[in-house]
Amino acid sequence: MIWVVAGTRDARQLVDEIWRAGLPVIASVVSEYGAQLLQEAFSGKVPVRQGAMELSAMRAFVREKGIIAVIDATHPFARAVSENLLQLAAREGVAYLRYERPSVDTTDFLNLIVVRNWEEVLGALGEAGEGETVFLATGSRALPQVIPPLLQKKLRPIARILPDLDSLRLCLDLGLQADQIIAMQGPFSEEMNRAMFAQTKARWLVTKESGAVGGAAAKLRAAAEMGLKTILLCRPDLPYPCITTDFEQAVAWAEERLQ
């Protein structure tokens, strides 16, 4: 059995490619919404496990389902999950492949500051003037370590989050007002990003290098056209033993593991 650790749109496409190749595959996602999308896509033909798993739960899952190979197709910034999967592969003798969505070429973007961690994000925002609007397209998990320092510096953060109650409650608990929260499902087009930047009078954009599939290119182009200063958080650097950005290579790898 091939286990695809999913949760993104391109991961769902990879599951489809493996299933169409006639290989036994099971997928897992953390969110109920992600599980719903997979179940709708495959009408029950591909088993789906929903819920977060720590390392011990992963080990039990591998043994229960007879997993011989795992494809880590999690979000580029789901570092903790990838680290657990790497440990799992080493301890259980399970073959491991990282599917990494292609990166965005940032060579020609102006006003772009590339950073490695959230401390460097806050350091770069030291140049922002009082009252300036900082558009946070980072996901909700980073907000507790970013928003309080911005409010302390008297900057105006705008958080673009998924439209779920937990994310909305988090923003309100951190002190954001209703006009500082955009709760919408992405990814967003370049035109939509421009409209949001204009509406919020953004001067800064903070985002992650989540790849073109994750909407990073559209955000960067829109910000560059409107003259925003952009802070781009680069991907975690993990010691993946085997990695691909190609669906066909991932399917071929899975086929070889089953021979």
Automatic annotation (TrEMBL):
Write one Gene Ontology MF term.
precorrin-6A reductase activity
> Pathway membership of this protein?
Cofactor biosynthesis; adenosylcobalamin biosynthesis
One GO BP annotation here?
cobalamin biosynthetic process
Q: InterPro entries, from UniProt? A: Precorrin-6x_reduct (IPR003723)
Cross-referenced Pfam families? CbiJ
Q: Which residues form a coiled coil?
A: none
The organism's superkingdom is given as Bacteria
Which key words tag this protein in UniProt?
Cobalamin biosynthesis, Oxidoreductase
What's this protein's name?
Answer: Precorrin-6x reductase cbij
Q: What broad taxonomic lineage does this protein's source fall under?
A: Bacteria, Bacillati, Bacillota, Clostridia, Eubacteriales
